[in-house]
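Trying the structure run again after the queue cleared.
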Amino acid sequence: MSLEFELQKYPKEIKLKDGSKSRMRPLRKDDERSFHEFFLAVPEAERMFIKHRVTEPDTIRDWCRNIDLGRNLPLLAIQDRKIAGVATLHQQLGGWKRHIGRVSVLVLPQYRGRGLARAMVAEIVALARSLGLEKVEAEFIGSQEAAVKMFALLGFSNLVRLEDYVKDMQAITHDYILMGVDLKTDEEYAGVG
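Done. Tokens:
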């Protein structure tokens, strides 16, 4: 399927396990201020593990002004008229990893425990499958145990774990974990369909 066709499905409302609802939609240029506010609301201890300097307005401005949904597709979860979470499908448009997507997800603490992150990751995986990707991977540091468990529940398995391999923004080393899920169905493996 084409990306344009898939994007027609949004905004999409999802029901969470506590009965509340969240609306998912892709990032837009006019989200700059609320997207920056979202990252500022992330606890500082958790921001240490984000690869980019998300508290700097220039970083968020660049993301919002140079949206390329074919390369990075951030899906926002809107609740209480603000961004409660974001899950992004990252893609290589060429090269030896062009068949593999990468997912990242972040939900604000006050919206956790309702199944929002799980619903967002499931949505990204379904999108990746619809776009023809064959695999989706996710990266973690060793202390992100809850996230690793949630991804395992969604079918991701550990591909690699490297001890003291990555450094957070304070230069503290952590284990690196790469998990992945194969998107090919049994019928595709059998040549049926």
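The chain is about 30% helix and 35% strand. Worth checking whether this holds up in the mutant runs.
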